[in-house]
């Protein structure tokens, strides 16, 4: 089978796919013949860092470029009822989901942007709740909504996106790192529960990754961007190719795993 048809006939949801890593994953899966549900909380989310206009624009571009069915959807994943409705809406328009890649999240406080202060002691309670909602609870609610149908069909694959921040101490971005650690442990537990139903559940933990948001919010030394070695920032395609492994036949017997995409480096300070 040609690579272009590797995922022909399959359907995937990629949350937070209007821009950044999520968009790269969605585009890579579309290039392999997979139908895609583009998701975001806000219709104009892709425009925030200059990566596009609207969610619909992203869907239209992928559909035109790769000739697969692509639809855009808006939902706030920290609301379990809204998340359940999202999955029902996707499956009504595209069909039963084969894969769900849970990418939505970030170190985002209650008012947007990074919490300030953002340490272990000083971070405000409302920001603690927002960061846990955006990363951990949104993952739990989406996994629950997706897994119900996959259990009935006794097939499927779920991939959560964690972070290398889950594995190292973070004096700054402490709650974010804790939320991503929670995602890792939940992923492993879910994998055990869904094993009898032939559903794989894995996590990808990227290190610093070159997205428009990353470049806009950090002062990154040029030597960390493109130096031809492992001592650099990851490219979004390097995360997307790991997704391909997990959803292809190569990953059929791989579940409950967490794969770091960081060139064997540590997570650099946020």
Automatic annotation (TrEMBL):
Superkingdom of the source species: Bacteria
PANTHER family registered for this protein in UniProt: 3-OXOACYL-[ACYL-CARRIER-PROTEIN] REDUCTASE [NADH] (PTHR42760:SF78), SHORT-CHAIN DEHYDROGENASES/REDUCTASES FAMILY MEMBER (PTHR42760)
Record family assignment: Belongs to the short-chain dehydrogenases/reductases (SDR) family.
Protein name: SDR family oxidoreductase
């Amino acid at each position: 089978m040609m690579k272009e048809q590797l995922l022909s006939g399959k359907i995937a949801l990629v949350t937070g796919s209007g821009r950044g890593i999520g968009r790269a994953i969605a585009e890579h899966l579309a290039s392999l013949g997979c139908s895609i549900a583009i998701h975001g909380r806000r219709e104009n989310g892709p425009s925030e860092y200059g990566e596009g206009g609207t969610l619909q624009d992203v869907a239209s571009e992928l559909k035109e470029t790769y000739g697969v069915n692509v639809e855009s959807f808006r939902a706030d994943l920290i609301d379990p009822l809204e998340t359940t409705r999202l999955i029902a809406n996707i499956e009504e328009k595209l069909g039963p989901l084969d894969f769900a890649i849970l990418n939505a999240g970030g170190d985002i406080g209650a008012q947007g942007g990074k919490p300030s202060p953002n340490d272990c002691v000083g971070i405000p309670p409302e920001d603690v709740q927002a960061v846990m909602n955006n990363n951990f609870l949104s993952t739990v609610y989406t996994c629950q909504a997706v897994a119900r149908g996959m259990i009935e069909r006794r097939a499927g694959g779920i991939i959560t996106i964690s972070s290398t921040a889950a594995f190292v101490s973070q004096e700054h971005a402490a709650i974010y790192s804790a939320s991503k650690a929670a995602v890792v442990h939940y992923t492993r537990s879910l994998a055990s529960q869904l094993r009898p139903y032939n559903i794989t559940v894995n996590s990808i933990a990227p290190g610093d990754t070159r997205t428009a948001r990353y470049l806009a919010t950090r002062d990154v030394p040029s030597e960390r961007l493109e130096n031809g070695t492992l001592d650099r920032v990851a490219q979004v395609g390097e995360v997307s190719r790991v997704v391909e492994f997990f959803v292809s036949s190569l990953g059929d017997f791989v579940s409950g795993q967490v794969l770091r995409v960081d060139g064997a480096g540590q997570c650099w300070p946020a």
